[in-house]
Design goal:
Elements (H helix, E strand, L loop, with lengths): L2 H12 L10 H6 L4 H24 L9 H23 L1 H7 L10 H9 L6 H31 L1 E2 L2 E2 L22 H24 L35
Antiparallel strand pairs: 1-2
C-alpha cells in the first residue's frame, strides 16, 4: 500500500473522523436530519480539507511556528468563503439547509487537526490524499447518520419515500414515522447506535482472530501521544490537551 492509498484508507477506516476519532461532532449532530444534508456538509468539508492541506503543505517551510495557527485559520477561512459563495450560487436549497454550519467549517477541528498534524509536516501530494481520505471518511459518517435518521424519522432516503406512510383518514396501514429521530435527540441516538454497531463488529472480528484496528483514545501526555490525528496538540496547556 503506497503512501497516498494509505492516507485514504486511514481517513475512511483507521481514523474515521466521525466513528473513530469522534471529531466534528457539532455539524455531525446538527445537519444530519437528512442524507442530502450529510452529503452536502461532508463534501463541502472535503473540498476545504483538500485545498487547505495542499496550500499549507506548500507553505509549510515559510509559515513561522509562532503564527502557524492564525495562518492556518486564514487559509481555511479563504477556502470556506469560496465554497460558501459557490454553494449559495449553485445549490441555494442546500445552502439554506446547512445555514450557519457552512462558515463554521473554518473552526472544524478536523481541518485544523490535519493541518497541524499532517499537512504542515509532509509533502503536497500525500497531504492532498490525506485531505481526501479524512473528508471522505467524514462524508461517509454524516451520510450514514443522515440516512438512518431520515429513514426512521420520515420513511425517506435522499427525499424518496421508501416506507409507505400510514393514512389515518382512509385507514390505510403503513409506517408511522418516529419524529424524534429528525430532532436533536435522534442525532445522539443514531450516532451512539452506529458506533456501538461498529464496536460489535470489531469485537466479533477480534474473537475470530482477525486483525482489528484499535480505537484512538486521548490521554493526558501530548509529548508521548502516538495519535497523529489529534487536534489537541494544536493548543497544548502544560502536559494536557484541551
Amino acid at each position: 500500500m503506497n503512501q497516498c492509498t494509505e492516507r485514504i484508507y486511514n481517513g475512511l477506516i483507521k481514523e474515521n473522523p466521525t466513528f473513530v476519532l469522534m471529531l466534528g461532532m457539532c455539524p455531525t449532530l446538527a445537519v444530519t436530519t437528512s442524507a442530502v444534508n450529510g452529503v452536502g456538509m461532508g463534501l463541502s468539508t472535503t473540498v476545504v480539507l483538500v485545498l487547505s492541506n495542499m496550500l499549507i503543505s506548500m507553505l509549510r517551510k515559510i509559515i513561522p511556528d509562532s503564527v502557524r495557527v492564525p495562518a492556518y485559520i486564514v487559509v481555511v477561512a479563504s477556502f470556506v468563503t469560496i465554497v460558501q459563495f459557490l454553494m449559495e450560487g449553485f445549490v441555494p436549497g442546500l445552502y439554506d439547509a446547512l445555514g450557519l454550519y457552512i462558515p463554521l467549517i473554518v473552526v472544524n477541528c478536523i481541518i485544523l487537526g490535519r493541518a497541524e498534524s499532517y499537512a504542515s509536516k509532509n509533502p503536497v501530494l500525500p497531504s492532498i490524499f490525506d485531505g481526501v481520505g479524512m473528508g471522505l471518511g467524514f462524508t461517509v459518517g454524516l451520510t450514514s447518520i443522515g440516512i438512518v435518521r431520515e429513514l426512521i424519522g420520515s420513511g425517506k432516503i435522499f427525499g424518496f419515500q421508501i416506507l409507505p406512510l400510514a393514512d389515518a383518514a382512509s385507514g390505510k396501514a403503513g409506517y408511522t414515522p418516529i419524529t424524534i429521530f429528525i430532532l436533536a435527540p435522534g442525532a445522539f441516538l443514531v450516532l451512539s447506535g452506529l458506533v456501538a454497531l461498529q464496536n460489535k463488529i470489531k469485537n466479533r472480528a477480534a474473537k475470530k482472530g482477525r486483525r482489528v484496528i484499535p480505537a484512538v483514545s486521548c490521554g493526558e501526555g501530548c509529548a508521548s501521544c502516538g495519535n497523529s490525528a489529534c487536534s489537541g496538540k494544536i493548543f497544548p496547556v502544560g502536559n494536557k490537551k484541551r
